[in-house]
Specification:
CATH architecture of the domain at 86-270 in chain A: Orthogonal Bundle
Number of helices of chain B: 19
Helix content of chain A: over 70%
Number of helices of chain A: 14
Largest sheet of chain B: 5 strands, mixed
Number of domains of chain B: 2
CATH architecture of the largest domain in chain B: 3-Layer(aba) Sandwich
CATH topology of the largest domain in chain B: D-Maltodextrin-Binding Protein, domain 2
Distance between the termini of chain A: 23 Å
Structural class of chain A: mainly alpha
Helix content of chain B: 40-55%
Strand content of chain B: 5-15%
Shape of chain A: globular
Oligomer: heterodimer
Distance between the termini of chain B: 68 Å
Largest interface: A-B, 34 and 42 residues
CATH superfamily of the domain at 86-270 in chain A: MetI-like
Largest sheet of chain A: 2 strands, antiparallel
CATH topology of the domain at 86-270 in chain A: MetI-like fold
Number of strands of chain B: 12
């Protein structure tokens, strides 16, 4: 039997019944569409329209508060010849790849730990979620202090622990600034992985572990051959979402470095904002934002195909 | 019964004299003004709690005020201009009046009237508010970016008067850094305190991004190289690495954290000091930017009011602006700002607002040598793009971190050629 919106509709009215409004609504096809309509309208208004308008803008030479002129792919050609744009591409891919790996590993570890039975487990779960719950702008202010060269608690610990003689410039040094942002993003994003993977772990039947143990499987073997295969679909979906969110990360970077020093932490979102909003070049700003689309689309297609095969 | 329309006509003629123009025959029920929050809260409060109620009482028009967060005005202005809705009077900063000129009403008549009444406008401000011969915004003042320094620490190394030249400042900085009081000048992606000293330094060595024609990129020059070489030395010998990543909050935090002895900032730093760090404020002073081989410069941030074309009653909005910029109102309002805004009107060159705190006088003095970002290139979309892409800031930051002078100039020149569509 097909399962879908139609299945929850009432039976179609009997032929010959007067065509009242109630009768019309009770028709399976009409009722299904009525139920779907709010969601579809929402998606059309807030996802499809901005998306297609963004594509339209990216093909125009369009400055703020002015009529646009269609220029085809000229904006993309200009970007292809812009050294800063390519630096932004490298920065974004490094930021997304490293944070995804770290969040995946950290989130999986977090899920495995909080899936165990121990005293204070619920409290631990609540605390581990905090980075994800606290508004990004607020937690970023805290990180500004943590990474401040003078007031940094990290520097204080390193200097007073005798590990270094003077504090590091966490946001002033080009390499350290990127790694600092990676740490902050990982800190904020790991609970998302943790809580989602925990949901996956809780679907695993204890019988599977029991059977594996009887067969003599070690803890590692049970993890590799029981846990991982079962949670793989969840793992793929959570990674897909996380990659999409991280590609579009803006608040954290904008508040901490604004893409500096010397573009070392500039990513697609910050560059698009600077060009589109600060410079008023809406067409070029849209082109920057859309440049990420092919990579994201390819990733989503590959992961979805893989998921279906599984 | 007297209607608001009648009242406006009467007050226009009898009470406010020439303040309310004859064209203001329609009296809207309400008008709204949007501005970026000022660092000087009494200035905003005086506007919303004193001036607007006064105007409401005078005309019966309900006046509302919207404040955006600091740095958020450009985004708000974009949404207003794009949607053609929202407040009809908006603040513009930098060269935004030219960036949004298609959405702004010609206010030349109002500007001429104000100029006539208040001794005339400073010529240099015209570059950022006049588009194709038409005034698109009415400046109320300049937020100057000057040197801020610790007088006690400078005295410790024998410097009793702020250095006149960049070379002398470097010499003082070397001594201060050795004493544990480095300088802290922003070299990151902030919005004000980076451009506040880098453009003046660049200009004072003779460097220019683009020529007056807006088509010839001239940054690849011996003057630019000299400015970069000096800046690298200045950074390495007087500062520390973190300034490369600073945004606008960091130098204030470092100054009040007693980490740095000198920076470039607006006068709000002393206002905050007097309020929250009185002991530091006592030993804080301001000075003009040092001079270089080709003169002394300051960067312009003219803040203005502009009238949006979607205003349902432009004549009424102009009438409000005329009233606001009348000496009776403007004088009181500027005084409430503790000299944070240096007016571009010669009639205010000796205004009482400058008397209570002589340490702010350099901000008035700096108006003479104030130039808009990307000067002498024309102001407009390309200039905004250069600033938004941090072309100049990043060129200096890369030089300071050790990149070769010729490489950073080549990168900046390539970016500017793309921005200005130059060959």
């Amino acid at each position: 039997m097909a399962v879908g919106p139609a299945s929850i509709a009432r039976p179609a009215p009997v032929a010959g019944r007067p065509a009242t409004m109630r009768g019309l609504i009770e028709r399976e096809g009409v009722f299904s569409w009525l139920m779907l309509a709010p969601g579809v309208l929402f998606l059309l208004a807030f996802v499809a329209y901005p998306f297609f308008y963004g594509i339209f803008l990216s093909l125009e030479d369009r400055r703020v508060a002015s009529e646009g002129v269609f220029v085809g792919l000229a904006n993309f050609r200009t970007l292809a010849n812009d050294a800063v744009f390519w630096q932004v591409v490298r920065n974004t891919f490094m930021y997304v790849c490293v944070t995804t790996i770290l969040k995946l590993a950290g989130g999986l570890a977090m899920a495995l730990v909080i899936n165990q039975q121990f005293r204070g487990r619920n409290l631990a779960r609540a605390f581990l979620l905090l980075p994800f719950i606290v508004p990004t702008a607020l937690s970023t202010v805290a990180w500004m202090w943590i990474l401040d060269p003078t007031f940094s608690v990290v520097n204080w610990l390193l200097v007073h622990g005798g590990i270094i003689s003077s504090g590091y410039s966490w946001l002033g040094n080009a390499s350290l600034a990127m790694w600092s942002l990676i740490v902050v993003n990982t800190w904020r994003g790991t609970p998302f992985y943790g809580i989602t993977l925990l949901a996956g772990l809780q679907t695993i039947s204890p019988d599977l572990y029991e059977a594996a143990a009887i067969d003599g499987a070690s803890t590692t073997q049970r993890f590799l051959w029981v846990t991982l295969p079962v949670i793989k679909p969840v793992l793929i979906i959570v990674t897909m979402f996380s990659v999409i969110f991280t590609f579009g990360d803006f608040q954290l970077i904008y508040a901490l470095t604004h893409g500096g020093p010397a573009n070392a932490t500039h990513v697609f979102s910050t560059l698009a904002f600077d060009i589109g909003m600060s410079a008023g070049q809406l067409g070029m700003g849209a082109a920057v934002a859309l440049s990420i689309l092919p990579a994201l689309a390819a990733l989503i297609v590959v992961l979805t195909i893989y998921l279906r095969r599984e | 019964m007297t209607t608001r329309r009648d009242f406006l006509k009467v007050t226009g003629g009898a009470v406010a004299g020439a303040l309310v123009p004859r064209g203001a025959s329609a009296a809207p029920k309400a008008m709204s003004v949007v501005r970026e929050s000022s660092f000087i809260k009494p200035f905003d409060d005086y506007f919303s709690k004193t001036l607007l109620p006064e105007y409401e009482k005078l005309t019966g028009i309900k006046m509302s005020y919207e404040a955006t967060s600091v740095g958020g005005m450009l985004t708000r202005l974009t949404t207003i201009a794009e949607t053609k809705s929202g407040p009809e009077i908006a603040m513009t900063g930098l060269n935004q009046a030219l960036l949004f000129d298609n959405s702004l009403v010609d206010v030349t008549d109002v500007a001429n009237g104000i100029g006539k009444q208040l001794g005339g406008w400073h010529e240099n401000v015209l570059e950022v508010v006049v588009s194709k011969g038409k005034w698109k915004a009415l400046p109320w003042g300049n937020i100057g970016q000057l040197e801020v320094y610790r007088t006690d620490w400078f005295k410790e190394v024998g410097v009793t008067k702020f250095p006149e030249t960049w070379e002398d400042l470097l010499a003082a900085g070397r001594l201060l850094k050795k004493k544990g009081h480095p300088f802290g000048f922003e070299l990151g992606h902030g919005f004000g305190d980076n451009h506040g000293w880098l453009y003046p330094l660049f200009w004072s060595y003779g460097g220019r991004e683009v020529d007056r024609d807006g088509k010839t990129v001239v940054i690849d020059s011996a003057e630019t190289a000299k400015a970069l070489d000096f800046c690298r030395k200045f950074y390495q010998e007087t500062m520390f690495e973190d300034v490369l990543g600073w945004t606008d909050v960091n130098n204030n935090k470092a100054f009040f954290g007693e980490q740095i002895s000198c920076t470039n900032n607006a006068s709000s730093i002393l206002v905050v000091g007097k309020r929250d760090f009185p002991e530091i404020a006592k030993v804080t002073d301001h000075a003009l930017n040092p001079a270089g081989p080709k003169g002394r410069f300051h960067v312009m941030n003219a803040v203005s009011h502009a009238l949006l074309t979607h205003a349902p009653d432009q004549a009424a909005a102009k009438a409000f602006l005329k009233w606001l910029y009348d000496d009776k109102q403007l004088s009181r309002w500027l005084t409430s700002a503790d000299a944070y805004y240096a007016p571009f009107l010669h009639g205010y060159d000796d205004h009482p607002m400058w008397k209570p705190e002589p340490r702010y006088l350099p901000y008035k003095e700096s108006l003479k040598t104030t130039r808009p970002h990307t000067w002498p290139g024309p102001q407009g979309p390309a200039a905004s793009e250069s600033v938004a892409k941090y072309v100049l800031v990043d060129m200096f930051a890369k030089a300071c971190r050790g990149d070769a002078t010729k490489d950073v100039i080549a990168t900046a020149a390539a970016q500017l050629k793309q921005i200005y569509k130059a060959k």
